[in-house]
Amino acid sequence: MLPILGLLGVDYKVERIIAAILFCLLSVGIVRLHTSSFWGPRIKQIYRRKFVVVALIFAGVIFSIAFLDAFAWKDKVEDNAKVSLEAQAPRSIFDRIFSQAVGVKEFEYRESSYSAPLAKTEFVDKEVELKFRHLLGTTRTGYDTFYMTLKGAKPGVIIGILPLLIAIPLALLLGVSAGYFGGRVDDFVVYFYTTISSIPGLLLLIALITVFGQGLPQIALGLGITGWIGLCRLVRGESLKLREMEYVQAARCLGVSDAKIIRNHIIPNLMHLVIITGILAFTGLVLTESILSYLGIGLDFSWGAMIDQARAELSREPAIYWNLLSASIGLFLLVFSVNVVGDAVRDVLDPRAVVAVAEEGKDNE
Questions:
Q1: What is the pTM of this model?
Q2: C-alpha span between 175 and 167 (Å, rounded)
C-alpha cells in the first residue's frame, strides 16, 4: 500500500513540485488560449457541442482527481505512538476526501479478501460478514476497488503529460531547424529520425527502461524520447512551406534575424499542429503504459497494472470480473473523453478542416 501514496517511486515532495508545475503549465496554457484574440473565438466554438462538453466534464473530473492525489503530506504522529505503516505514509488530498466520504481512513476501508460489489459477505467464505459495503467490491488484498480505480487516474494523467513535455520541445527544435534552414541541417535531422524510426518503438522503449530502470521518471523519459518523431515530421514539412511565404520573405528582406522570424512567424503558425498532436498523443501514451504493464514493466497501481493483475481473476469459478471492469471503464473514459476533445479541437483549429467545412456549407446552399 505504501507505494500508492507516493508517485510510484518518486518522493512525495518531488511529486508535489511536478504536480504544481504541470498544473501551472496547463492553467496558463488554457487561460492564454481563451484570452487570445485569434485562438479564443475558435476554442469557444467547442462549448457549443453538447457531446464535447460532456467529454470535457469527464476529462476534467479525472484530471482533478489526479492532481488532488498528487499533493500529499504526512500526518503528525507522536514520537512514541504505535501506528501502522500506512498511517505513517504521506496521504494525499484525495485520500483525505475519500476518508471523509466513507467515515474511516482510506487504508482501513478494506476487507481480508475479495468481496463482490455491494456484497454483505466475503466472496470466498460466504459465512464471513464484511466490515463495510463496497460499491465496486474489493481487490485480492481487500482494498476497495472504487478507491483503487480512482487512484489509477494519477499515473494515467501524469504518464500522458510528462512525456509530452519532452517530446514537443524536441520535435519543435529539430523540425523547425530542419524545415527553416534546410541544407545539411535538414539532412542531419531527417537521417536522425529516420534511423530512430527504423527501430520498433516498443522494443526501443523497453531497451531504454531496461537501461535507466523501471519507474515513472524512466518510463516518461523513454516515452518522450520515442514519441517526438511523428510531430517532428509534421513540423518539418510545415516549416518548409512557411519559410517560402511572402511575409517570411519580406521579413528577411527587411533584415529581421532568423531567430525573430522563427519566434514571430514560424512557431505561431505551427501551434495548431502542436495542440492537436499533443492532445491525440496523450491517449496513445496512456495506452502504451497499459501495454507495458501487460509486459510487466509498467507502473504499479495504474489502470494497466489493474487490468494485468485481473487477468488471472477471470479464470476463477465463479469469475472475479469487477476489478478488470472497473479499471477498463476508467481507462476508457479517459481515452474516449480526450479523443473527443481532440477531434473537436482539430475541427476548430486545423485551417484545412475549417476551409472544408466552409466549402461544404456553400455547396449545401
A1: 0.80
A2: 12
